[in-house]
Write a structure and sequence with these properties.
The complex is a heterodimer of chains A (about 160) and B (about 90). Chain A has one domain. Helix content of chain A is about 95%, strand content about 0%. The longest helix of chain A has about 140 residues. Chain B has one domain. The longest helix of chain B is centred in the middle third of the chain and has 15 residues. The chains are: A mainly alpha (about 160), B alpha+beta (about 90). At the A-B interface, helix 1 and helix 2 of A face helix 2, strand 3, strand 4 and helix 3 of B.
Amino acid sequence: MNINIVQILFQIVNFAVLLFLLKKYLYAPILKILEQRAKKIQEGLEAAEKSIIEREKLEQDKKRLVIVAEKDAHRILEGARIRAQKVERDLLEKSHQEAEKRIQKTENIAQTRLRQMEHELERKFAETVVSTTESLLKDALSLKEQKSIINHQIRRLKQMKIS
Amino acid sequence: MPRRRITSDREKDVEAKFNTEEKTALVVSAIQLSPFQCKEIEVVISRHLGGKYRVENRVDESVIGGMYIKIGDRVIDATLRLKIENLKERLLP
């Protein structure tokens, strides 16, 4: 077996050159690309984690906002309910007062009408009494009684003091 | 001219003695007064007021009963009509 030293050296130099060239023009860029890719993956992972955290934060914010909105809605509803109750009470009170006023007015009218009727009745009664008394006296007084009344009045006239 | 009012009996006697002019007393009644009643009224009025009075009797059935005497501006209303009117006033509110 012949060993060609020159051939071996050439092969060594050739391999060294190839190694140098590979290292310089292939391995370094590939490594750089790999590093960049790893970096991008890392950044992506970080961004994903960040977005997850952000999303959780947003979820929490959303929950908090929902709670606040629910509280606000509840407060608004409660306020509206209280206002509605107040309006209802006011309306009820107003209608009650109106009804009271109408009842009072009707009662006053009825009282006035009753008084008028009473007065009218008393007047008619008095007139009836007077006209009945007149008729009775006219029919009932005999000539003798008429004379008797006049004689009685003449006797009283004698006792009177006329000046 | 207004007459002076006579107050004492003495003044009335003097008035009766010297005042011989006959005056009229209007008496309204529901029935005709008898001459005796007219005379009695004349005497009473003359005694109270002095002078001489003559009764003029007027019949008016609206007085119902009793009599209404008018002597000058004096009025004595003793009719049943007045009593009924008073009753009406008392009955009315």
